[in-house]
Amino acid sequence: MMQRVTSSCRAVVVVAAALFTIISEQASAQSRNTQQAARAEVTSDGPSYVLGPSDRVRLRVYGEGDITGDYEVDTNGYISVPLAGRVKAAGLTTRQLEKTVAAALSRGVLKDPRVNIEIATYRPFFILGEVKKAGEYPYKSGLTVLDAVASAGGYTYRANEGKVVIRRAGSTIEETHSLDAPVPVFPGDNIRIPERYF
Fold first, then answer.
1. Which of 70, 72, 98, 171 is the most exposed place for a label (fewest CB within 10 A)?
2. Do 146 and 127 touch, CB atoms closer than 8 A?
3. What is the DSSP string of 52-84?
């Protein structure tokens, strides 16, 4: 009888370990997919970067000095362009936005407008937790977590300097990363430096 109970317990432990492994692998795969999607959105040259609120774009319409200028994506995801009106920018790349603005201008006064759009400034990132000056900071291409910590005045004495928790822009999932290697930061990221427990 005791042998059967022990065998049953072993079987339950084996099944639980197998389920834990499967769930862990799925969570890791989801985290990798989220990171890959975030990396695909932000590149140094910006063509595949997906715009969002607080990004600022530099718009040029050739031969139209009154329209050319910098425009910030508002909290609803729009930019307001003279002669084109409010144009949805959030969720688009700069190339897609060029086509959208050109189409909006074509419906108005301009015939065959030539539009060029580039990123003027990226949306800020946010850092909180065990840093000396938590808050919002401007994003620069190539930023890492250690750069972000330096921008925020460095770690507090309570900080766990070995890991970071990041919620990527547009995601509700928090990812924990080891700081053994550089961890990239993207526009709109929320970075949290946790407290150490010893």
1. 70
2. no
3. -TT-EEEEEETT-TTT-EEEE--TTSEEEETTT
Q: Are 93 and 103 in contact (CB under 8 A)?
A: no
Q: What's the residue count for the chain?
A: 198
Taking the C-alpha atoms of residue 58 and residue 116, their distance in angstroms, rounded to an integer, is 8
Give the count of beta carbons closer than 10 Å to the beta carbon of residue 171. 15
What is the rounded radius of gyration, in angstroms, for the C-alpha atoms of the chain? 24
Q: How far is it, in rounded angstroms, from Cα 98 to Cα 117?
A: 6
132-180, pLDDT tens digit by residue?
999 999 999 899 999 999 999 999 999 999 999 999 988 899 999 999 9
Single out the residue of 64, 185, 187 nearest to residue 120, CA to CA.
187
Q: Which two tokens stand for residue 153?
A: 């005045």
Tokens of 4: 């059967």
* CATH number for region 124-193: 3.10.560.10
What is d(CA 171, CA 91) in angstroms, rounded to the nearest whole number?
14
The helix or strand, by DSSP H or E, that contains position 183, with its residue range, turns out to be none
The token duo for 71 is 């425009």
| Per-residue pLDDT reduced to its tens digit, 44-92 | 345 689 999 999 999 999 988 889 999 999 999 999 999 899 999 999 9
Task: With CA atoms as reference, report the closest residue to 42 among 195, 170, 178.
Answer: 170
Check whether domain 56-121 has CATH 2.60.120.10, yes or no: no
